[in-house]
Amino acid sequence: MSLRGRPKKQRVLSLAPRICQFSPRGKPGRPDEVFLRADEFEAIYQADHLGKTQKSAAVSMHISQQTFSRILQRARKTIADSLVTGKIIRIQEGVQEIDLTKSR
To answer: Within 10 Å of residue 52's Cβ, how many Cβ atoms?
Structure first.
């Protein structure tokens, strides 16, 4: 079976995430997990931590503003689900390249 649609364009990340997992405290047992892709992590970093506009953040990730908006929306939904339901957040690798000329 062949893949449908266009292939994913590489996203440029400023750096790889330093932490790959967040776990809730105070929830008995083994909580469920949600997965945050590395490009979603970068979108949260650019938009919410640095306060960049979607357009400038999209330019720095080498993607369109519409694609950035979709990634950011998916990342915020994943984080909200984790916070509300007490799930572990795991940051996964994806289709990206790391720009070593930038630093956080």
So the answer is: 17
7 CB-contact burial (10 Å; exposed 0-12 / middle 13-18 / buried 19+):
exposed
Entry pTM: 0.77
User: What does the alpha-carbon distance between residue 74 and residue 79 come to, in Å, rounded to a whole number?
Assistant: 9
Amino acid at 62: H
Contact between 79 and 71 (Cβ < 8 Å): no
Q: Which residues pair with 96 in a beta bridge?
A: 11
Domains defined for the chain, CATH in brackets: 19-93 (1.10.10)
Q: Which DSSP letter does residue 91 get?
A: E
Per-residue pLDDT tens digits for 52-98: 999 999 999 999 999 999 999 999 999 999 999 999 999 987 555 55
Query: Tens digit of pLDDT for each residue in 5-46?
Result: 777 666 777 777 777 888 888 767 777 999 999 999 999 999
